[in-house]
Write a structure and sequence with these properties.
The protein is α+β, with helices and mostly antiparallel strands. 25% of the residues lie in helices and 23% in strands. The chain has 22 helices and 33 strands. The strands form seven sheets. It has a nine-stranded mixed beta sheet. Strand 22 and strand 23 form a beta hairpin. The N terminus and C terminus are likely disordered.
Length: 945
């Protein structure tokens, strides 16, 4: 079945190019209409079943990679194919193509080079600054940089060429230049000095003073962190002076202070989502329309980037309209957030006009060109009072390899740095971070987003501190927890529930922890047993998140709901359905996600950057009732449940309050002056009946029918924005006062009428100063593992594991548990298996595939012995919190701490391989000096990862 072609909604005209958006519906059973998903199974109260489950398990055409031109109504039926040639060399000049080895039947119809892009006047969007195709005569900026785009009219020619080129050398190189150098993507320093006693204002903090960078470089382009007596350094010098004082104290501790000084290293890794990047595009020359099918985490950004690409292009290829269908994503983990891949899909179509073109990575190409996790090098120092175990000071220096393009390196550096002390209350903190350019494959967003690296280093360091102080590791953590109202290292409090103490209590009471000594004592001969623990928090959200949502209820009580969040295995459709059901009495009958269309009535406009806009500019812009700081967010940063469903949840709440509740009052016969009309928050749904004490239950369908009859609100479109708190606005909805809600734009429908925009009478956008906090929303997770290591081989088995987490309101328990199980598997892979070497031996050489890159398999995991516990919300009113990243992070440190418990050796890099474990068990560890300095060199050696 072909998906039907929808009308597109126009949001913006970028550079004179009209942008249209639509969701590509699954080509599945005939009873499911375009834009819909199968209804959830089970009752809303249980929230069981996935709205996308049927399509996925029956193999329906769903993802971008599933579609060809013949599947698209109105498109030509034949599909052409594109192939990106990427350079495996970034130290010699690129001298052009060497395609002579291709036989006639495998030669491309069109070859697109950098010269063609320059001739046609395309522009690189600022986020992807750098050559899209490497020009002849220039050294490639990075390994894996595309050098040419080959277009083939038939699959046979494409497939033959792809096979031949994989083992050939289709690119010619000239003089050796060495790798190109580039400035750091960012250099930041975060310093905080708390007040003399709890409750006192900070002496210095990033929240007070802003984020600072030295701005002064040495001869090698590295930042000079010491404060310099020069005028341009003054904004930085104050914080740096406090930072240097903290480090001076760490280098000369008193007799009652333990200082540990350690390094830690993580390698680059691949997101390894199941569906490699893929797109389908058709340029219609007569209509000058560019049609695309894409699967990305950031639909709005992708469309705007393509418009920027062609805004000043030659008329022969410049589209006047870009219409994009967005499909569900076959896995993301951040790797499809702000990826340049859609730009190449668009270029393929315009350089082969009139022919739909499919551009799809195979796994070799995805390894070579896909976004990677940043490799980190870290040095951490921590000071603790030997008597009390209290943490006194912390300092760290981070260097992360961003690869050849900036992408999200600056943001990852900042997030990793501001998370460097995790969930602990430390009064003196100084952290520097550098995101550096290299010739490596581009690094960007990936699950954990900098905190996987820095929190692994921290949690292993805390475990070592507990050993040095002869304290129970959980007890040491409990003594130093940041509690509700305490200040993080940027100087702000977390503004959500803080539940790390409860997490630690659960970990301490679990049999894995209580029985650790007995398990060690009864280990088989030749086997070492160890137990490890780790606990962490992870922010969710980016500080500039927004959501679009639309909800409608018909006279029979049937509910439709949609949002702009993307389905990428995260179950967002199920979360949306269940959150809407809380207000409207049943799971949505039809759910659509990744919908950027359908909100025309809101008339939204935006301007400036929500992260850098000044308060004055925001206040001025907010006078326009159509203005919002941003229109649509990428689905990333664990925002699906908290952000992705927010606008629809508020829309459903408004439908209940101003549609279903007045209808219920009418059915109960309550008059307008009856004080019980204010009890709408006391009413509840059960088994599709509305219940209020003292009144007969009302069937949901009857209430909906009455709402339509009396002209109540039966539909709502909404937009919401969060900068570590939700924007709030007031709207005239017919009550004695305007209704205040956590959305900033609203349109409603009464009865069966059309949607009408409501002008907000008041709006309060979160202050721009909140851009300094780094994070205000956080979730907690703790993990216990017991490992068994064979001394003879170094083989490690995860014998048993337990993770406990909290995420506020649980919208779908099955999805939450599934995310935690997947997070455990990914954490195990990072700790024990996954690694990508840098540079020429790494994925940029084009030779990597799953035969070389090992991920966790069933045999590596404690199947049947992994327990997941999800804490209930602190209150029935607690909103959902993001949790998809936090469930991965403590797994890595818990495994490293368990390895230490089993072997007596601490590893300062991941992954820890069997060869390393075998070497460690053959070599007794050298004791650490009591000062906490690094251990003395050992005469034994172990294999490197």
């Amino acid at each position: 079945m072909r998906p039907s072609r929808r009308d597109f909604v126009t949001w913006v005209a970028a550079g004179g190019i009209t942008l249209g958006f639509s969701r590509l519906a699954p080509a599945q059973a005939a009873h499911v209409a375009d834009g819909e998903a199968a209804p959830a199974q089970g009752t809303p109260s249980r929230g069981r079943g996935r709205v996308d489950g049927r399509a996925k398990v029956t193999g329906a055409k769903l993802y971008a990679s599933d579609f060809r031109a013949a599947d698209m109504a109105g498109w030509p039926s034949a599909t052409a194919h594109g192939l990106l040639l990427r350079t495996p060399d970034a130290t010699h000049t690129f001298e052009g193509l060497a395609l002579d080895m291709l036989p006639a039947e495998a030669k491309p119809t069109v070859v697109v080079t950098a010269a063609d892009l320059a001739r046609m006047g395309t522009r690189v969007p600022p986020f992807y600054a750098g050559d899209l195709l490497c020009p002849v005569g220039k050294t490639p900026l990075y390994l894996g940089q595309p050098a040419a785009l080959l277009l083939f009219e038939t699959f046979g020619a494409f497939d033959r060429a792809r096979t031949l080129l994989r083992d050939a050398a289709p690119l010619a190189f000239g003089a050796e230049t060495g790798p190109l150098s580039g400035p750091d993507y960012i250099d930041l320093r975060f310093t905080r000095v708390a007040g003399a006693k709890p409750g006192d204002p900070d002496v210095y903090s990033p929240l007070q003073e802003g984020w600072v960078s030295p701005g002064v470089l040495d001869a090698n382009g590295r930042p000079i962190w010491q404060p310099l007596p020069v005028p341009e350094g003054q904004p930085y010098a104050r914080g740096a002076t406090y930072g240097e004082e903290i480090r001076k104290g760490l280098s000369a501790p008193g007799p009652g202070v333990l200082v540990l000084d350690r390094t830690f290293e993580t390698r680059a890794t691949d997101p390894l989502f199941l569906e490699p990047e893929c797109g389908l595009a058709w340029y219609e020359p007569g209509a000058k329309a560019l049609h695309l099918v894409l699967g990305v985490q950031s639909p709005f950004e992708a469309a705007e980037a393509m418009a920027h690409l062609f805004a000043e292009a030659d008329g022969a290829i410049r589209p006047s309209r870009i219409e994009t269908h967005f499909a569900p994503v076959g896995g993301g983990f951040g790797g499809r957030d702000h990826t340049p891949f859609p730009l190449y899909v668009a270029l393929a179509a315009v350089f082969l006009p009139g022919r739909p073109v499919r551009l799809a990575h195979d796994r070799f190409q995805q390894f070579q060109g896909g976004i990677k996790r940043h490799a980190f090098e870290m040095r951490s120092q921590i000071a603790l009072d030997r008597k009390s175990g209290r943490m006194l000071a912390f300092a760290a220096d981070h260097v992360l390899d961003g690869g050849g393009l900036a992408n999200y390196s600056a943001s990852v550096a900042a997030v990793g740095a501001t998370a460097a002390i995790g969930s602990y209350d430390i009064p003196k903190v100084d952290v520097t971070t550098r995101a550096v350019h290299s010739r490596g494959v581009t690094a960007g967003s990936m699950r954990g987003y900098g905190t996987f690296q820095t929190l692994t280093a921290l949690e292993t360091l805390v475990d070592e501190a507990a050993s040095a102080l002869k304290l129970d590791p959980i007890a040491l953590r409990r003594r130093n927890l940041l509690t509700t109202g305490g200040l993080s290292m940027t100087g702000n409090p977390w503004t959500v529930s803080v539940r790390t103490a409860e997490i630690l209590d659960r970990l301490e009471a679990h049999p894995i922890w209580r029985n650790r000594a007995q398990e060690k004592a009864k280990a088989r001969a030749g086997t070492r047993v160890g137990t490890g623990v780790a606990c962490c928090t992870k922010d969710y959200g980016t500080g500039a998140d927004c959501a679009l949502g639309r909800v409608e209820i018909d006279p029979n009580g049937r509910i439709t709901a949609q949002c702009d969040a993307v389905e990428m295995g995260n179950g967002i459709g199920t979360a949306l359905s269940n959150r809407v059901a809380r207000a409207l009495g049943r799971a949505a009958d039809h759910v659509a996600v990744a919908r950027i269309d359908g909100y025309e009535a809101l008339g939204l406009v935006t301007s400036d950057d929500p992260y850098t806009i000044t308060q004055e500019a925001q206040d001025a812009a907010a006078k326009n009732p159509r203005w919002v700081p941003a229109i649509s967010s990428a689905t990333s940063a664990s925002i699906g449940a908290h952000v992705g469903t927010q606008a629809a949840a508020q829309a459903a709440r408004i439908i209940f309050r101003f549609g279903l509740w007045p209808a219920a009052l009418a059915l109960w016969g309550l008059h307008a002056d009856d004080p019980r009309r204010f009890l709408w928050e006391e009413a509840l749904w059960q088994d599709e009946h509305l219940i209020l004490s003292g009144f007969a239950p009302l069937a949901q369908a009857d209430v909906a029918a009455k709402a339509h009859e009396i002209g109540g609100v039966t539909g709502a479109q909404a937009h919401a924005f969060s900068r570590w708190s939700w924007a709030q606005a007031a709207f005239p909805l017919g009550g004695p006062e305007d209704w205040v809600t956590e959305v900033d734009a609203l349109a409603v429908r009464h009865g069966g009428g059309a949607f009408k925009l409501l002008d907000r009478s008041f709006v309060a956008f979160p202050p721009t100063s909140l851009n300094r906090v780094g994070t205000a929303f956080t979730s907690s997770c703790g993990t216990l593992v017991r490992v068994e290591i064979e001394a003879a081989s170094g083989a490690l088995t995860i014998a048993q594991a337990y993770s406990v987490l909290e995420c506020g309101e649980v919208l779908s328990l099955d999805v939450v548990v599934g995310q935690a199980q997947g997070g455990f598997a990914m954490g195990a892979g990072h700790a024990l298996l996954e690694t990508l070497p840098p540079f020429e031996d790494g994925p940029g050489n084009g030779k990597w595939n799953l035969g070389d890159y090992t991920i966790a398999r069933a045999s590596d995991l404690p199947l049947g012995r992994l327990e997941i516990e999800v804490l209930p919300p602190v209150s029935a009113r607690e909103p959902p919190k993001g949790m998809a990243e936090v469930v991965m992070i403590p797994v890595v440190a818990a495994l490293l701490n368990a390895i230490h418990d089993a072997t007596g050796r601490r590893f300062q890099a991941v992954p820890v391989t069997p060869a390393m474990l075998k070497g460690a068990l053959a070599c007794p560890p050298s004791p650490s000096p009591s000062t906490g300095a690094p251990p003395a060199p050992s005469t034994c050696t172990t294999a490197s990862p």
